[in-house]
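Issue 218. Parser rejects a valid record. Input:
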Amino acid sequence: MRPRPPWSPARAHEILSGIRAPVPVLLALQSLQEEFGYVHGDAVPLTADVLNVSRADVFGVLTYYRDLRREPPPAVEVQVCMGEACQAVGARGLRGSAEALAGPDTEVRDVFCLGNCALGPTAVVNGRIIGRATGDQVSRAVVEAAGAS
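Output the parser choked on:
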């Protein structure tokens, strides 16, 4: 995961202004999250103003999509695929292993279908995909990611 700059209203306005209109609110919020790692609360009125939509529209999109975060991300993000193919080959146990090793700055969450079905169960640690993942592999990746942050 690349280091993220701190929230900056000026930079957020620059990002939003650089997007060609009309643009869906979701794409605008994803652009902000890509830059800052999350969507700051002040981005709601700013996005509404720049895109000429209501704050309710922006807030609705922000709270509807699980992938959009309203808080800075933890140092280590672990995603475990819970799609049917991965569950069939042990994803639930893998998730339990990942949850057991989660520290205070580690987040473990379910995702559905990472498109790696033939190599399930699949986990992603800070953007690094692990196919045919085992608890030991995920544990090593978490330790690595924690040391890099």
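Fixed in the parser; the record now loads. The longest strand covers residues 76-81.
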